[in-house]
Design a protein that fits this description.
The protein has a six-stranded parallel β-sheet with strand order 5-4-3-2-1-9. It has a three-stranded parallel β-sheet with strand order 6-7-8, covered by helices on one side. The protein has a single domain, classed as TIM Barrel (Alpha-Beta Barrel). The chain is globular. The protein is an alpha/beta fold. Helix content is about 45%, strand content about 15%. Helix 2 crosses helix 3, helix 2 packs across helix 9 and helix 3 packs parallel to helix 4.
Length: about 220
């Protein structure tokens, strides 16, 4: 997926589903349920078992319909691995300018983790396309609204502890998208009826991100 199309895909649903952990080769079923719930972007964290293989499979099966990325990317070598598997965006828990630069060099969307205005500006200067606010639970919607005062065009993705209600609050404050991990994708998906519940949760998050306009 081209870089511009990746950004459009993320923006169309405004929810990045995070797949972290061992899902016993059922990642494609999980991705299908998420997509049916309206999610248009998902990341597989590289600290998950078989992450690169999962990214390759998801990119092959769904890459033309949704953005598939790699999360918890800490090194430039990991960026290369993810790119080779077909990932179209890179997410990190931190602001590493070398990871950002390597991601940009490979024409992939860069979403580094930031916590302060200084880190945000440093990430943008290094070539980031948007910033992941992490851990968002320690910042809150007020932080998003305040930072957007001097940086109206900044694309922020609060991640960590986001619920449908706080997603709605973040969107109202001006968040571009949200990253959702265990609050959306959990081991419950592997139980009876779990995929339907997953689809319902996905729909709730997507609807929350569409309910409010930015201020």
């Amino acid at each position: 997926m081209a870089k511009s199309n990746t950004c459009k895909s993320i923006e169309s649903g405004r929810v990045i589903a995070i797949i972290r952990g061992d899902y016993r080769g059922r990642e494609s079923e999980i991705a299908a349920a998420l997509m049916n719930g309206g999610v248009t972007a998902l990341e597989v964290t590289l600290n998950s078992p078989g992450a690169i293989d999962s990214i390759a499979q998801l990119s092959k099966n769904f890459g033309s319909k949704i953005a598939v990325g790699a999360g918890t990317v800490l090194t430039t070598e990991a960026v290369a691995q993810a790119a080779g598997a077909g990932a179209s965006f890179i997410v990190s828990p931190n602001r590493n300018v070398n990871v950002i630069a390597e991601t940009a060099r490979r024409d992939m969307v860069s979403l580094p983790g930031c916590f302060t205005p200084s880190e945000i500006l440093e990430a943008l200067d290094a070539g980031a396309d948007a910033v992941k606010l992490f851990p968002a639970i320690s910042l809150g919607p007020g932080f998003v609204r305040a930072v957007r005062g001097p940086m109206r065009d900044l694309r922020m993705i609060p991640t960590g502890g986001v619920t449908p209600q706080t997603a709605r609050d973040y969107r109202a404050a001006g968040a571009w998208a949200v990253g959702i991990g265990s609050e959306l994708v959990s081991a419950d998906a592997l139980t009876d009826g779990g995929l339907e519940r997953l689809k319902s949760r996905a729909r709730a998050f997507v609807e929350a991100m569409r309910d409010e306009t930015t201020t």
